Amino acid sequence: MHEETVYEALSNAHDDEGHWAFGTGFDEPLAGVDTTVPDGIDPADLGAYCLMLGDDALVLAQRLTQWITNAPELEEEVAIGNIGLDLLGQARLLLARAGSVGVLGRSRDLATDSIPDEDALAYFRDADEFRSTALVEAPNGDFARTMLRLLAAATVRLAVFARLRDSRDPVLAAIAAKGVKELTYHRDHAARWVLRLGDGTEESHRRAQDGVAAVWPLLADLFTATDVETRLAAAGVAVDPAGVRDEVRDVLTQVLQRATLSVPEWPAETGPRGRLGEHGPELTELLDTLQGLARQHPAATW
Amino acid sequence: MTAVTLPRTAPTDPRAVAETVTDPELPMLTLADLGVLRDVRREDDGTVVVEITPTYSGCPAMGVMRADLLHALHTAGFHDVDVRTVLSPAWTSDWISEDGRRKLAAGGIAPPGTAPVRSPGPIPLQLGPTRRTAVCPQCGSPDTVEQSEFSATACKALRRCRRCGEPFEHFKEI
């Protein structure tokens, strides 16, 4: 393959049939990465776990991008867009990792086999096949609620990723080590907004406190392990979410207190729901927007 | 695909060729300056293996970098080129070369300071204003303030100079 120009090089990067229209097209995020699964790790469990972490990132990225053209100030619009982009990158890596261990199975029921695994997983699964949690699925609400949700979601994810840096799966460990750097920025950004809003005007305080009231119940299904997580945690691959509960509670309490917001009772934990595919109608609605066009034209290329 | 005439001269060192490729979003820097180009080597069968690592997980420029590297190496006469992604160790702004830092500043982007050291345990919250400092690349004043930790790309923050009043970008420490 000898390309005359960069544009030709781009259009020939994958195959001669053109790029599938709805993915990023240019490269597969794990191209050249050794995706061998280490001995003693069940590939099906690993794939299911990568979907949990990848779906959280994909869904939250989609929620954040709903702020584009609506953020309170230009700098914040750029910040939210960049945070969403980081999460989308994490989702691509994790969904590609899930694909590399065979979560799609042998009989891909798709209009075309040329769609990369990460895109097939993002665009062609129904809501009940998603493993994301209610915390990332809930509608944005106002800006204060959005920042409280981002604070909670980034805090949980950072605590999990910090531990996953030692995962026995080297691909997952590498994704986590990279993600930790990004999530630290996300969490601190959201925390500073919560301080500014909570300890701001009467109106911003009221909205931030309403945001707390809306977000706290969403923590109820986060800290009980599914069977997959329990098995993988025992094998040194995954993090038992119960092990990050105290750290998350400490961080959130610290921010709320500094923001002069009252800290609600910790919600009664329900056990896993989203991780088992139980979701409310808001996920279906979100996926309709995310997936609609790709599903109408599954074979489109450019 | 268009047929091209291959150079008749013997190929030079593939590393030297790969090191000329610039970043698509920061064209004043080469991928080598940026620390994104991790390795260039020739396998026994003659294949040139190039390793690159993303700056951020969502970096949308990886595909263009890959294509630019392929293009440069093919043009230089290397037919079999394999551009691979490496994820570990994760990229850090500390890998930007001294030369790269000078080029950033000359291009109006304040170079990064030293990246924070990551402990293996929980990551501490940073609630106050960031302690990062950056010298204005326009007028050289150290009296600058951060406007946003995020800018036109994920790798940069937005700052403003209090002396000359100009906004500028600051390559973030990561």
TrEMBL record, chain A:
Per the record, its GO cellular-component terms are: cytosol
The membrane spanning regions, by residue number, are none
| InterPro entries hit by this protein | Aromatic_CoA_ox/epox (IPR052703), Ferritin-like (IPR012347), Ferritin-like_SF (IPR009078), PaaA_PaaC (IPR007814), PaaC (IPR011882)
Pfam entry (one)? PaaA_PaaC
Q: Name one GO biological process term.
A: phenylacetate catabolic process
Q: Record's Gene3D superfamilies? A: 1.20.1260.10
- Which NCBIfam families does the UniProt record give? PA_CoA_Oxy3
PANTHER family xref list = 1,2-PHENYLACETYL-COA EPOXIDASE, SUBUNIT C, PHENYLACETIC ACID DEGRADATION PROTEIN PAA
Q: What is this protein called?
A: Ring-1,2-phenylacetyl-CoA epoxidase subunit PaaC
TrEMBL record, chain B:
Specify the PaaD zinc beta ribbon domain's residue ranges.
130-172
Q: Which Pfam families match?
A: FeS_assembly_P, Zn_ribbon_PaaD
Concerning Gene3D superfamilies, the annotation shows:
Fe-S cluster assembly (FSCA)
Q: Cite the InterPro entries for this sequence.
A: Fe-S_Maturation_MIP18 (IPR052339), FSCA_dom_sf (IPR034904), MIP18-like (IPR002744), PaaD-like (IPR011883), Zn_ribbon_PaaD (IPR056572)
Q: Which residues form the signal peptide?
A: none
Q: Give all residue intervals belonging to the MIP18 family-like domain.
A: 19-74
Q: What name is this protein filed under?
A: Ring-1,2-phenylacetyl-CoA epoxidase subunit PaaD
List the source organism: Geodermatophilus poikilotrophus
